[in-house]
User: Fold these one by one.
Assistant:
Number 1:
Amino acid sequence: GAWTARVITLFPEAFPGVLGLSLTGRALAEGLWGLETLQLRDFATGKHRNVDDTPAGGGAGMVLRADVVGRALDAAAQGARGDWPVIYLSPRGVPLSQTLAKRLSQADGVTLLCGRFEGVDQRVLDSRNVLEVSIGDYVLSGGEIAAQVLIDATVRLIPRVLGNSASVEEESFAHGLLEYPQYTRPAVWEGHEIPEVLLSGDHARVASWRREQAEALTKERRPDLWRAHESGDPVQGQELS
Ligand code: ADE
């Protein structure tokens, strides 16, 4: 079967969202990957079907209950081929990277738990071996957008999803550097010319100009990536191909 994302959420109608369009949407329609949603509330019991409760120790907001989330995760694990990773999207998580996306793309699929509110009871994350993943140092209103980011970054690395695998290898992070600038016709736009070297037809000069641009941009904008690149550290999917 195809790589599948199984998403546990209070808002299944948020999926596929943007993933239903363009490259990922075509690949989804062609069966190159699969998407399943589980409504978290279906695993709640009682008249009110409560999924959350107030935090132990006091404080603001609400916490998703261990019993409800536990039943949802156990249902999601049913029929998962082998054991595939279970991820809770949260700003406390390990950072999403090209390396992690590549690893996830090589599994049979992934179960994604989307939170709302202040978080999830820690006991269910610990007992079900859930990996927490963050898409960046900012706080979103819920995990759904983060889950879509993770799915997009992962699905496009599945063989045959991206038409041209050369573009994966050329893009940012494939070599640990930011991408060089791109241009297309017309040769002059509002008086601004395309750099002469790109029109020279000299492939070696083009390649070294692009390398210089990528290095200068990386030094300027991402000193952290530049240091890793220089020290030969395999970060951000540098080792990915
Ligand atoms: N949920 C809320 N904020 C998030 C973030 N930055 N990354 C992943 N999941 C989140």
Number 2:
Amino acid sequence: NAMLQWQRTGFHFQPEKNWMNDPNGPVYYKGWYHLFYQYNPDSAIWGNKIAWGHAASRDLVRWRHLPVAMSPDQWYDINGVWSGSATVLPDGRIVMLYTGSTNASVQVQCLAFPTDPSDPLLINWTKYENNPVMYPPPGVGEKDFRDPTTAWFDGSDDTWRLIIGSKDDRHAGMVMTYKTKDFMEYELVHGLLHQVPGTGMWECIDLYPVGGVRGIDMTDAVAASSTNGGDDVLHVMKESSDDDRHDYYALGRYDGAKNTWTPLDSDADVGVGLRYDWGKFYASKTFYDPAKKRRVLWGWVGETDSERADVAKGWASLQSIPRTVVLDTKTGSNLLQWPVQEVETLRTNSTDLGRVTIDHGSVFPLSLHRATQLDGGLRTHFCHDETRSSRANDIVKRVVGNTVPVLNGEDLSVRVLVDHSIVESFAMEGRSTVTSRVYPTEAIYANAGVYLFNNATGAQVTATSLVVHEMDSSYNQAYMASM
Ligand code: DQQ
């Protein structure tokens, strides 16, 4: 339906057509960033034939679409090649672990390798001949055992460790640890790494270090903690709640020897405290980028329109802008998420509006060339109100957000990315983020505009600084195989 094509984004990743959900196996390999994703090649809705879509990029912004990497074609994944993660071995080889949904819909873990390791685009994948490598252990439901993480090396017993989320029979979300020497044989580590009552199935868990001197790569951080106590390193644990479809995280301490992870603040434990994003954002995953020595987060941003509309337009879902993730050393109690710096290479016309004061009850239009793709910041109050975003009646419209700490001496600041049908906002340098899908019926292409308004009954509001960057489309910049 050509009418709806304006909803396609200019600089957020999406497949050329059909359904996408979770980001899978992000990894940097021979100069290319790889993004795999849950993909239905047949339709714009989720189904039982989910495959791994694949794209690669030099800069996390301009993407090249590649052939489907893995399809459901074996007894152990015939009902879906589900989510998983990449591990890079010290010699540079990649090991991919993913969940297969078997011919009996049992969730098992499977192994795959690049068929040709000399191919930087990693086009072809070979599934391990003795798959599956892990079955649900005794006491764990056949349909509650999925989404293996990236593995890290633990020198104390020379094993690789990884974790898998689940829930127990009393609806507590929980995390199991496995260890392996060769990625073919696995041993369940005694006890649970963590567990939170009442939080249900933990999908797509993630565990990674932040804050310490060597605290970005998991293997490095584990090595550092065994040599110096590692007290400066915190570990983020994140789960995607199948109950309410939000991504929850907490800061804590990981102890490999005891196989425990303990939250700093038990009142804000995983699943009950902080979220990565207070809008539409789910099944996210981080990876360590060795090229720029940073941790990068991807999240699946689904549609909030109707399934009927998705079928009509022939596609569904976006990925968030890839975000760097660091510890907020000022508060010590949350992460900072920020669009990767490469996004700024898409900025074209920049308008610095300086200081703007808006009287109560008034609207201030900004004059811009193009308002459908923007990146900008202002320092004043901010509100994500989806109720005003569309006249359509088949979509979810809410007011979404949360409190964000503003410390003494700080001003409130917000950065907002606008890309046709998505608005992604970062308050206070990324202490809190909100993502919305928007489906305007009139404000599309040249009819879109940006306005400052002040709905207060009495007070004036002053934005002490306001900058707007019009954004290029990353897809305009064709990618050559030789790049
Ligand atoms: N999506 C995958 C699962 C995962 C879920 C299936 C989260 O592996 O638990 O498409 O969105």
